[in-house]
Amino acid sequence: MVFFCPIIFMIEFSIQKKSQRSNARVGILKTSHGEVETPAFVPVATQATVKTLTSKEVIDTKSQLLIANTYHLHLKPGEKIVKANGGLHDFMQWPRPLMTDSGGFQVFSLGFGKDFGMGKLLKQKHLGESIGYGQQPKLLKITDDGVWFTSFLDGAKLFLNPKESVRIQEALGADIIFAFDECTSPIADVDYTKASMARTHTWAKQSLDYKKATQAMYGIVQGGKFKDLRIESARFIQSLPFDGFGIGGEFGDNKAMMMRMLDWVVQELPEEKPRHLLGIGYLEDMPKIIAAGVDTFDCTLPTHAARHGTAFTKSGKIDMLKSAYLKEKKPIDTTCDCFVCGTYTRSYICHLMRAKEITALRLLTFHNLHFFNTYVAELRERIKKGKL
Hints:
Blueprint: E1 12-18, E2 25-31, E3 34-38, E4 40-42, E5 44-45, H1 55-60, E6 66-68, H2 70-75, H3 79-84, H4 88-92, E7 98-100, H5 104-109, H6 112-116, E8 141-142, E9 147-150, E10 157-160, H7 162-172, E11 176-178, H8 190-210, E12 216-221, H9 227-238, E13 244-247, H10 255-266, E14 275-277, H11 286-291, E15 296-298, H12 301-307, E16 310-313, E17 316-319, H13 346-354, H14 358-384
Parallel strand pairs: 4-15, 5-6, 6-7, 7-11, 11-12, 12-13, 13-14, 14-15
Antiparallel strand pairs: 1-2, 2-3, 8-9, 9-10, 16-17
Helix pairs in contact: 7-8, 8-9, 9-10, 12-14, 13-14
């Protein structure tokens, strides 16, 4: 079945219910491919697929919105192939709303993130390390004009800048695209972060200038863990005519700092436009980031954990590789109404994991995504009832 939509309209966002206890709100994000009830968890479809599942199966997990990866889809199969197949929606047979990132996260993940083996939150082992002004990653060259990458496929040089990022994203055809930015490292010092933020601001204006299609575009707030820079970035990005906002970059030394950073940023952003938190979506963080005023957020955790045998339950995470589960005839979670929990036992899934069967990864991925989406739906209901 083809879901061809010849016209892509701008988004509309409306707030249906505001909390009296926090900055949480329930909203409706309208796109030409349907509506998203927010707050919403956004599964990651890096290569135009949520790993191990078909698009139909992802729909059955109650997923409303996906985010695909501009950098990786540019490398393979290339935006020309995707466009020739009618754009991402037709290519992957996904009839619901889609986002594409700008490639800015790869500036970090394939750069300093790879060099130091780190993510967006600082880990104990990296305490004392620092990235200073003018320092360059080993495999990237970051300039004010754009970023030179070395392809991990064939070693070829690849240049991304605002013009190229927007061109690729318009060819891919998602409903929501992001301005090109530089995602900074948790160990970047204030001088590096300030220079990086200035680049992101210049690139934000250029991204808007190069935008030709009627897709919605979000600008991305940077500034690292520095309060004055985060506030400056939020004020600058919100002053530009973006349709919504991404909150990106590193998120400090710990989860408490991350929440303070969200508070700094959200209070500077206009209430009437949607806010997306890039790359953060742990279950324990969801009530707090939603209470901070975030509308959508993406994370690879439920799919990544599934591929390592981890299932999420109301009682916490369980490791389905442990032999003890071979004796358990109950479902992964007795409170879960997903297809997996209604059909298979822990014993069977544990057997599949230990036998290294692909089916195990599919079943755990389905369950985890359904579990995450169900939890966010419960949080939406809590907002509606005045409990969050």
